[in-house]
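User: Show me sequence and structure for the first protein, then do the same for the second.

Assistant: Starting with the first protein.
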Amino acid sequence: LAGALGYGGAFIGAGIVSSLVQAVPLHVWIPGLALLTKAFVFLYLVMSVRVSPDEVRRMSTVALGVALVILGVGVVELVLPDVASALGVVPFDRARGLIASVNSWFPHPAIYGWLAAFVSLFLLARFALMRRTWALVLGVLLGGAAIISGRRTPVIGLLVSLAAGALHEIVTRRVSWRLWAAIGAGALLVVIVSITVMGQFYAQTFEDYFGRPTRIMEIFRENPRSRPIMRLHPRVALYAGSLAIARDEMPL
C-alpha cells in the first residue's frame, strides 16, 4: 500500500506541476485531476480491505450470479426484444453492423460490454488457476456478450487483457500451452461466429483505428497540420496526441 501511495502521489504531483508550468486553466486541470484521483482512491480502498480467500470466493459467487442475470437479459434483448421490453429493458436503439446494440438494464451499451468483458476475464482467470472447464466455456460465451454490446473498447480491452495475461505467463516462465491454446481457441471461435453479423463492425473499427496511418503520423510531425488530424477518430487522436505531448514535454 505504501508503494502504491508513493507511485500515485508522484503521478498526481507530476500532473499538477505540468499543468501549472504550462499555464493550463484551472477549470480544465482541476476537474481532470478529480477524475484521475478517483481511480487511485478506489485502488487504495480496495488494497486496504483485508479479505480471506473464502470471503472472496463467496462474494464473487454472488456477484457472478447477479452479473449473469443482467447479461442474460441482454441476450434476451438480442433474440427476443419484445420479451426484453416486458422485463423493463429500454433499447438503446443504435445499430452496429447487422445487430442492434445490446444494453440490458443499463442506460448505455458500453456498461453492458464492460461488465461482460470483466466477468469473462474473471472466469478465464478462474480456469487458468483452477482448470474448471465450465469457467472456460462461460468465459468464452461472455466474451461474445461483450461483442454484442456493439462497443469497441470493451472488446479491445478484453483482447489486450488476455495478451497481458499471456505475456505475464511467458515472463514468469509458467506458460501452460494447453491452457492458452484452450483460451485462444475459444476466443477465435467467438470471432468466427460473430464475424458473419459483425463483419462491418470489425472492418469499420480497423479502418477508424489503423486505416489512416498517415493521419496518425501527422500528429507526431514538428508542425502538424490540423486538417488531416480533424479527420481522425477522436479516440485515436486523443491517444496519439497524448503520446506526442509526452514526447515533447518529457519528463512533465
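Switching to the second protein now.
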Amino acid sequence: MNTTDGTSTVSKFIQAMPKAEIHVHLMGTTQPQTMLELARRNEMLDALPASDVAGLQRWFAFTDFSHFIEVYLTIQDLVRTPDDLVLVVYECGADMAAQNIRYREVTFTPYTHTDYQDKGLTIEDIMCGLEAGRQKAQREFGVEVRWVFDIPRTFAFPERAGRAYDPRPAERTLEYALAGRAMSVVGFGLGGPEVNAPLHPFAHAFAAAKEGGLLSVPHAGETEGPESVWGAVNELQADRIGHGVRAIEDPDLLVVLKERQIPLEVNPTSNVCLHVYRCLAEHPLPHLDRMGLLVTVNSDDPPLFNTTLVQEYQALVDEFGYTQADLIRLARNAFVVCGAEAETKTRLLAEFDQWVASEAQGL
C-alpha cells in the first residue's frame, strides 16, 4: 500500500519506529567521506586505494572475509587522535538520529589502537575520545550509546595454521573493558575470523568479564558452523551471540538456544556481502524467528555493506513478508536484551511501548 507521495506506508512506519541496535562496529559506521576527512587531517591519503567516495565504495565490494578485515584495519589506521574518535562517534550519533535509532551498543577494539599499531594513543586517550563523542551525540541528538570492547581474534592467533595462542589481546582487552565500566562499557566481545581460532583459550577472560558485570557477547556462527556457537555457549557463557545464524545447521543447538532464549544479533545484509549466504532469500532469519529463537536485527558495518538499520527492517518486509506486528516484535527484542543500565532500559522500553500504543496504528 502506498501513500499519495509515493512513499510506502511500511517504509514510513519503519523510519518512525524507535529502534535499538546491539551489533554494530564503530569503525564500520565510518562513512566514506569521513574516511577521506580522517586521511586528509592525518596526511594519510596514500593509505586509501581511492581519493573519492565512489572509489572507496567500489573498494567495499568484498571478495572474502580476509578482504573485509583488510579494509576494516585500514579504516582503523586512519584514527590517530582522540579528536578523530570524537568525530567518528559523533557522526555515528548523527546517523542514529537520522534513522530514529534511540540506542546503540557499539563494538570497539581498543587493542588495535593501543597495542597493534604504534599510534602513540593510550587507553586514556581512547576513552576520552569515545566519551566526548558519546556525550556530544547525546546532547545534540538525544541518543544513547554504550560500548562493547572486543578481543581481535586475528591477533590472538598470529600463527593461525599452527593454532598458536597469544594471550595478550584478551588480557589487555579485559583490562580496558573492566576499567571502562564507569564510562559506558557494557559488554565484552570477540571478533575476527573464526577459522582455526578455538574459543576455549578465551574462557578465563570472559569469566572475569562476566564477574565484573559485563555481558558476554562473542561473535560466533558466522564464518564457522554450529561448533562455533556451541563454543560461545559452553566455553564463553554467552549472554548473546553475535551473528549465530549457522546454528540453523544443528537441530540440537537450536533447541538449546530456544530453551535458554539466548539472543542472536543477526545481520542479514552483512551475511550476504561476506558470502555466508548467496542471497537474502537463503538467509535463515525468518526460520530462526519462526522457531521461537530470540532474534534481533542489526546492520554490523552499514556503510561498508551499503545498508542501514532501516533498510534491514525493510528487507524483512520485501523479502520475507514481515508485517508491522512482526517488526514491532523484533524491534522490541533489541531493547529488552540490550546491556543498558536498568533505569535507561526501563525508560527506552516505556518510550517504545508508548509509541506503539499511541502512534503505530495511525501510520
